Amino acid sequence: MSWNPFSRHTAPKKSVISRTEERELVKEIKKLDQHGETSKKLQKDAKRWVEANNAVAGSEHKITQDLLSCQLCQSEPEFYKQIEEWNKTVEKQAQSTRELNGTVQKTVIEPVKKLNGVYPSIDTAIKKREQSLQEYMKSQAKLEKYQERERTGQNIVKLETSKKSLIAAKEDFTSQNNALKEDIPKFIDMRTEYIQPSLESLIKSQVALNAESVRLYTELSEHMGSKEDNSIQQTLTEIKALSITVD
Questions:
Q1: Which of 104, 115, 160, 177 has CA 20 to 30 A from 97's CA?
Q2: Which GO MF terms does the UniProt record name (predicted)?
Q3: How many Cβ atoms are within 10 Å of 119's Cβ, its own excluded?
């Protein structure tokens, strides 16, 4: 819809629509176009978000799997047990992530996709309105042409026919023009009302996921235990003192 439906107008002797009215409708169409682009980006970004969530969950799971299969874990039962607990936590977290992704799909991607499916029909209505305007302008010009001609019997008949055609063209254009003037602003306002509940649901799901993540990893931390900073530093010093680590 990123085009000016009035850019190709060739003005007749008498304007069939005011420039102010033209500018107002163009303004609404541009606003609609911007909203359409935003909706498309929202749908794409939500899909990327789901993919990113899956990638993060998959990456952490790969770390725990690699550790579980390494020789160090195999030879250290206590360490193996800790990594096993971590792996269980990762799998629980992955399940929560899948639930969040399902929420994103149902509350954002699918509704926005349906919304984006409406824009082509609006675009069609705008183009039909443009065609109707062109027909209205041609009918106006044709009437003016016969009004200037000599009033012969044949020209009078053509003049009357032109008047009827102009009335029909005007009625058709007025109907389509009024519909767009009323419906485009309404659609833009309703679009916000349509999307807002989806975003609220998504945010609540995010809160639930993060709360669950805190709970899971807090329990994991307590289960695994943690060394004091000085103990960790002492171990690091001992590692550096090994002959194979000396520069």
A1: 115
A2: lipid binding
A3: 18
- What residues contact 96, with CB distance under 8 A and at least 6 apart? 209, 212, 213, 216
Q: Which CB contacts under 8 angstroms, 24+ apart, belong to 54-57?
A: 54/97, 54/101, 56/97, 57/90, 57/93, 57/94, 57/97
Residue 183 token pair: 């419906």
Span 101-150, pLDDT tens digits: 999 999 999 999 999 999 999 999 999 999 999 999 999 999 888 888 88
Distance between CA atoms of 90 and 64, rounded to whole angstroms? 8
Give the domain ranges of the chain: 19-127+183-245
- Which DSSP letter does residue 107 get? I
CATH fold for the domain made of 19-127+183-245: Substrate Binding Domain Of Dnak; Chain:A; Domain 2 (1.20.1270)
pTM over 0.90? The answer is: no
Per the structure block, which two tokens stand in for 185?
């602003």
Beta-carbon contacts of residue 118 (< 8 Å; ≥ 6 apart): 187
At 216, list the tokens: 């899971």
Q: What's the average model confidence in pLDDT over 1-21? A: 58
SS3 state of residue 228: coil
For 176, the enclosing helix (H) or strand (E) is helix 153-224
| Residue 6 DSSP SS3 | coil
3-state secondary structure of 14: coil
